[in-house]
Design goal:
By secondary structure, the protein is an alpha/beta fold. It is built from eight helices and seven strands. It has a single domain, classed as Rossmann fold, CATH 3.40.50. It has a seven-stranded mixed β-sheet, with helices on both faces. Helix 2 links the parallel strand 1 and strand 2. The two termini are about 35 Å apart.
Amino acid sequence: MLRERDRSLDGVAAGAKLFEIGAGDGSYIAHLRGEGYRATGIEPHARPGDDAIERIPLDQVELPARSQDVVMMWHVLEHLDDPAAALAAAHEWLVLGGRLIVAVPNISSVQARIGEDRWFHQDVPRHRTHFAESGLLRLLERQGFGPRRVRHVLLEHNPLGMWQTLLNRLTDRRDVAFRMLKRDPTLRGPGIGRDLLITLLVGPILVPVALILELFAGLTQRGGTIIVEATRTGR
């Protein structure tokens, strides 16, 4: 589960300072610290007692200007009301030539076209903004970043997104399999038996279909997730 983020750190030497926005349970920061990086972050739902993660909103973060070598936003930007403000803050914190790593769902993806309003990542109201590659790159440029590398093939998320999207076209409820994995207590009510049966019986059949579709999508620059590695310019 860490491989794709690690690939975005190619060329960043151990000892570099990294700040993660949306650090989740802190497992990735712990991984980075084990690899020798000086990693910290923020997460609104952080566990108490973890000194590597602050439990504060993004607009309350106080980091010295040009103090970080890397800022990471992994499936975070789509949740924010003001993505431009978050990128402006990252620009201020990064050293000149420092690296910004952003991963977001791709609204121009094959799975978005298949799913339409039942696309796995069409997660309103949790997802506030959706991005296509061209729009994301323009936003980054306006905030003083130059793209270093763009990737669409992401084994960590994309096949799951395609698979769940295909199932969403067949079930009455959205994201039944994903909600089962998360032990969602609201997954009940009339018709749930049918949705569970479809998920359990048809789901395995759709696994190779999802893998093939998503591989094709990634190779044609229409994968379910866009990863951009950008460099802070002198602006």
